[in-house]
């Protein structure tokens, strides 16, 4: 039975090795903030961090991350960048339906950790794997700049 | 084994029904959605003041607004709460919103014929007065309770930001402190509403959405996230063609997957697919089991044509007269006199809604009762369809309303297609002795291929201009499946014309002496179709606003000035047109792009659902023909602007949603089978294609209209017109694609 480190807590999940992390998080660990959108790493709704790197949990077997630190939307506020992004999302009222926003936030946090002052082009490149059908993209761009400024 | 208990949310629903019978009921049974999520029966403590169906105030000082509409991203929870809290004079921070149960008597939508439903951008239009009256009544009762308690005249009491005060005696109380006493006051027969000049929340900038916090920390509960004790997840095999039936299958390969509890065949209806469902303790097991199944299909009853054949059939139909949807003057005579006639075909494909949350529905079936947890647009339609399917009274079907991860019209199926499917699966499971709650979840592929698309349309148009270039005859033949025919909404059709097929053309605002709009609705095409955000306007707005642009070009006139002079009888159209043009700098030359590129600017103005929207799109076309939409400037008149930031957000989102359809959207069929499956081949808009967007709201005192849909229609024609402006090439087929060949 793999034990996963999720948001700083060791969590044992009784699932087959090949089960994608997404379903272990949602159906077993009851962390439903991470969403299913496509199952093929095409939409980014399932984005979480493994050892700080953004990954698509819908195509990542639990066995591949058993020794890594997993952070989900439920744990993202534990760090300054995560908090700044979450606050920017609130300040600018980014969310509409909200279904993709956990993944958007996780991707944005990952971007800002690698690039403290991204340009619009940097944002477009880093965030183009995350689909939002409500097309909140204008505010996603603005919120990332907002968070970058708050962290500067 | 039957379910001997009422699931918790059903208790909440029943209690809410009792709430509305009058004030003075002390009830503590209501559960918050978060508490019901895992069916933990922990009632809220404290009595509640619930003077009507739209709010309750607890002794905890929370104001809970009950929203009769689905929150699918459009901001309706915030809008409804704003209206009520305005007249209640609540502190916005004490306001929380909960989805109301399905209850036509209390939550009907007059703008949709009395059903409880969310659609047609009607929520603010329908609720503008009722929600304010609900708040004002509660305020009056709180004031009366305070007057009684303090032994003072009610006239000396003021209410502001959730505090009731009597200045003369220096006394004050919170709503929570007065809730019990307010519940004992008579409900006022009539109330006086504030004049707009006294509004504090309506029209306010920076009023936070009520759902933002939960949607940024992972706690918002969608159907996908709901769990009940013992619940099984169902993943299905659908027929590859619409209408096919199951011939046979071997359940064994699915049953050996750990976690799989059952494999059940479920019957289809005329409007809901037949198939096989794998029920398991988790989604992955259900999906793995599903993928292991081989189902043989009986394709005899199925529809087998491809979209190319449908298109050819429609082009042929467009050559013949259709049913008259609108007629003014004599178009044929006028066309004969015209100095110039523009003839063109505009064509648009089927589109899947492709909301981020694939379709799903949680069902608990009991003996003669059915409890459903879902985010759905047509609550009481669904309730009735399920009641009929099960042969039980509608009140034995409860619906607990959750957030939905988009919908764009898909969760407003007049036949309750996916709810029928979920209930059919639960029923088939019950026959195998499985009484667990069942959550049907579509995979992305199931969702893309699940039907109920925006209908493919061919519009054959002729436009006659006089010698001065003024349009004198407009003739349009619109060919596409009817959405309403054969549904409970068929009664809204007149003379065989589906208003949702011709809206936007039949009511063309331009001053043209001779106009004829005809419709063909081929009934033999059996691809399931449905409303898609802005419905008929998705295609009529494209053809009408492109055609008028063709006319301006043929007349050698400026596209804005040309439209404006034909809109003298439509000041609201004209106002948004002129505002968008002004803010876009229409009268200044467009800045040049990088060397080797061509830039262009296009405009469109369109009314839908009572709101008026104009957009100016700017494009840059590279030497190889690829292009980018750089900026869209949008002006909107939706009457009183209740939540300005939500209006801006809906325009931004409507533009992005409309651009997805304009640039990429195409759902095609071959031999009756849908060719696309997931986001790699059903392309939607990504952030790198999103233009800058500027939104300007026309100040207005008109009754509010909606904003969920009206931002969509103008963007496709505005971009096509901009590409024409840049390249001289007129694009009449959607999707436009990502490059222009000239």
Task: Give structural attributes.
heterodimer, A: 152 residues, alpha+beta, Ubiquitin-like (UB roll), DNA polymerase, domain 1, 2 domains, 5-stranded mixed β-sheet, globular, B: 742 residues, Aldehyde Oxidoreductase, domain 4, disordered N terminus
Average pLDDT taken over every residue of chain A:
97
Task: Tell me the span between the first and last alpha carbons of chain A.
Answer: 43 Å
Poorly predicted spans of chain A = none
Output the CATH topology of the largest domain in chain A.
DNA polymerase, domain 1
User: Helix- and strand-based class of chain A?
Assistant: alpha+beta
Helix content of chain B: 25-40%
Rg of chain A over CA atoms, rounded to whole Å, is: 15 Å
Cα Rg of chain B: 27 Å
**How is the largest sheet of chain A built, in terms of strand order?**
2-1-5-3-4
Q: In CATH terms, what is the architecture of the largest domain in chain A?
A: Orthogonal Bundle
- Largest sheet data of chain A: 5 strands, mixed
CATH class of the largest domain in chain A: Mainly Alpha
Helical content of chain A (DSSP H or I, runs of 4+) = 25-40%
Mean pLDDT of chain B: 93
Annotated CATH homologous superfamily of the largest domain in chain A: [2Fe-2S]-binding domain
User: What characteristic shape of chain B results from the CA principal axes?
Assistant: globular
Percentage of β-strand residues of chain A: 5-15%
SSE topology sketch:
The complex is a heterodimer of chains A (152) and B (742).
Chain A: E1 3-6, E2 9-12, H1 21-28, E3 47-50, E4 53-56, E5 69-71, H2 80-91, H3 101-114, H4 120-127, H5 137-151
Parallel strand pairs in A: 1-5
Antiparallel strand pairs in A: 1-2, 3-4, 3-5
Helix pairs in contact in A: 2-3, 2-5
Chain B: H1 8-19, H2 33-36, E1 48-52, E2 55-58, E3 63-67, H3 76-88, E4 95-99, H4 104-107, H5 123-150, E5 157-160, E6 163-166, E7 171-174, H6 175-182, E8 232-237, E9 245-249, H7 252-255, E10 260-266, E11 275-280, H8 283-292, E12 295-298, H9 307-317, E13 323-328, H10 331-337, E14 340-348, E15 360-366, E16 369-374, H11 379-390, E17 397-401, H12 417-431, E18 438-441, H13 444-448, E19 457-465, E20 471-479, H14 499-502, E21 514-520, H15 537-555, H16 559-565, H17 571-584, E22 598-608, E23 611-621, E24 627-637, H18 644-663, E25 669-670, E26 673-674, E27 692-697, H19 715-727
Parallel strand pairs in B: 3-4, 8-18, 16-17, 20-21, 24-27
Antiparallel strand pairs in B: 1-2, 2-3, 5-6, 6-7, 8-11, 9-12, 10-11, 13-21, 14-19, 15-16, 15-18, 19-20, 22-23, 23-24, 25-26
